[in-house]
Amino acid sequence: MGMSKSVRRPAFMVPFLLFLGVMMVLPRQAGAQDQDPPGRVARLNFIQGSVSMQPAGTQDWVDANPNRPLTTGDNLWSGDDGRGELHIGSTSMRLSNDTGISFLNLNDQAVQIQLAQGALNVRLRLLDANEAYEIDTPNLAFSILREGEYRINVDPNGGTTAITVMSGSGEVTGGGSAYALDPGQQGIFSGTSPLSFDNEYAPPPDDFDNWCMSRDQREDRSMSARYISRDVIGYDDFDAYGTWRRDPVYGPVWMPSGIPYGWAPYHQGHWAYIAPWGWTWVDDMPWGFAPFHYGRWAYIGGWVWVPGSVAVVVGHPYVRPVYAPALVAFVGGGGFSVSIGLGGGMAGVAWFPLGPRDVWVPGYHCSPAYVQNVNISNSTVINRTQITNVYNTTTVNNINVTNITYMNQNAPGAVTAVPREAFASGRPVAAAAVQLEPQQIQHPQVVQRTVVPPPRNLVPMAARTSSVRPPATLANRTIVTKMKPSPQVVPIGQRTTIASSNVVKTAPPAPPARKLPPPNPANRPAAAASGRPAPATVRPATPTTNRPYTTPASNAGTQPANRTFTPPAGKPATTPPNRPFTPPPTKEATPPPNRPYTPPPTKEAAPPPNRPFTPPPKAVEPRTNKPETPPPTKKTETPPSKPAKEQKKTKEPQR
Asked: What is the CATH architecture assignment of 41-217+465-537?
């Protein structure tokens, strides 16, 4: 409802429509209404050199954005100087240069990726009993069976696949046969039918392996893993860009550092339409993934991010955090007037971040169980009864609620508004934002749907066209699969979907996997000089257990009242600068000092500069247990046979 031009009162009351959650999608087809969207996505969190992406449903290649969620149908290509690191929950996958992958399936039960060319490193921390990981190449399908670390190489011609198992175990299927791979082995497979093989010891690490190790060590040292699950994608970004402190109500909270004056969540970034969720927030900050798809924001003298109560607790089932496209409440959407800011009536869209006690009800179709999980896993203070009541009111009974007070609706700078065209085209929000008066959001109305349809061009204006593209040789490259891929995927380098092409070759049923014959002992590589353990002593991939988080006593029984921000009487709400918090002394380890981030003017969401990995000197040579020359005092006291034993003990670690 727009404001009439004849209104002269200074209140400028604009009847905004408040939309809980992402109400920015049209009804989906009836055939898809019985399925919930996936509860997880992938994120390309680190980019070195040239890396481009092709969003699902498009033929355009654009510069990869580290905060753009990746899902089924998306393709990635790294140039000759490129490397990339992506995460699916706690699992890391790293691309070497000249490497191309496609997401054939990415849902709660399966991760299926096509490796068309290049090298892919996979470190799997946690594998559920009903979960499957499969890497498909031009001549085989590799199933990961245990937590561990793996490397898969496909030559540029697509005729040979080499799989190295540093730790864990896997199974190769192709050409009517199946082979088991154990730690310390490298299987080299050529051809298709039959599939020939050669078994070797795992080779010494190269430069790509060393880079992967340096990234692993960065994750392993993360202090933020004390407070949140490693399945919260982007958890390790918190270490360098903010501080943790303990709030008496919410427990551990995180406050960003180095943010500009007047900053507020969901203000620096853009909107992109990503199926099946619909309108999705893509932030500009280098740490801008986890705080905008998990948890909630609260204004407590300054903006802090409140994580969900997700932790690995021994003796209890593991609860995986559920991804959300944007945890905001929408205001307007159906055509509100921002005539004050624009000088004439113009349709626009506005939103603000939801607080820890605000229930999020998605605008896309989903089950009551999905609504429960996405709220419970992202908030420590919302109970199931509260979620059920809100869901039944707004979704089942389709009742418009007008008397709900949201925690952040009056917080300084919380509400962001843009013209509808800027929203739908994916323009940068900070440049298109319209200034609003506090009186314009005094009486919101809860409704269920907006009229902003999906855009014709799924590539937002904020994306930049990339010249780094896969070679034409991938156009006819086949894919051998064991699981059935999504039929609507367009594999990397091709122009038609899997359903309308014959590039996918499903591996025929194979007999039980047999072990490869042992490699020639004469080919065993020497002990690694760069820090990676030799194949016989590969490091285990045991996931680091998060410390269980105990919910404050106020969460049980009666909950404290919502702590909403109310401007002082008679004074307009101004946006004071965020005041940094000083964490109180606790027994927990203190995170490293904040390093403020200043994004470069020509890049959005630029990741921190890559630091080349330099192996520590102690890892180059094995440490000797005893001096090579015994002290003189021991020459007369030690029997002749004992120095030989000591010398033998000294050499043992070198084997």
From this structure: Sandwich (2.60)
Q: What is the rounded distance in angstroms from the CA atom of residue 409 to the CA atom of residue 158?
A: 55
Please give the Cα distance from 503 to 530 (Å, whole number): 40
* Position 97 confidence tier, pLDDT thresholds 50, 70, 90: very high
**Virtual torsion, Cα 374, 377, 378, 381, nearest 10 deg:** 110
Of 273, 284, 405, which Cα lies nearest the Cα of 352?
405
- Segments of 482-540 assigned E as strands: 504-506, 514-515
What is the amino acid identity at position 168? G
pLDDT for 302: 94
pLDDT tens-digit series, residues 536-575: 333 333 444 444 334 334 333 344 444 444 444 444 444 4
Residues 6+ apart with CB under 8 A from 335: 1, 2, 347, 420, 451
Q: Phi/psi at 373 (nearest 5 deg)?
A: -65, -40
Please tell me the total number of residues recorded for the chain in this structure.
655
Residue in the structure block whose two tokens are 């290049």: 118
The dihedrals phi and psi of 206, each to the nearest 5 degrees, come to -105, -170
Helix (H, G, I), strand (E, B) or coil at 163: strand
| E-strand stretches of 250-393 | 251-256, 269-274, 278-283, 296-299, 303-306, 328-332, 348-353
Q: What phi and psi values does residue 328 have, to the nearest 5 degrees? A: -130, 165
pLDDT of 637: 46
306 SS3 class = strand
* Cα(287)–Cα(292) distance, integer angstroms: 10
Which neighbouring-strand residues pair with 272? 280
CA distance 158 to 116: 7
SS3 374: helix
Q: Supply 488's token pair.
A: 């609507």
> For residue 40, which of 315, 261, 294 has the smallest C-alpha distance?
294
CATH 2.60.120.1440 in the chain is located at 41-217+465-537
Rounded distance, CA 14 to CA 126, Å? 50
Q: How many helices (H) and strands (E) does the chain have?
A: 9, 30
Q: Cβ of 459: how many Cβ atoms within 10 Å?
A: 20
Lowest average pLDDT, out of 264-268, 346-350, 493-497, 586-590, goes to 586-590
Q: What gap in Å lies between CA 541 and CA 243, rounded to an integer?
A: 28
Which helix (H) or strand (E) is 438 found in, with range? none
Continuous segment of H or E residues that includes residue 118: strand 110-124
Per-residue tokens: 529: 């000089």
Q: What is the pLDDT of residues 386-442, one digit of tens each?
A: 777 776 665 544 545 555 778 898 899 998 989 989 999 999 999 999 887 766 666
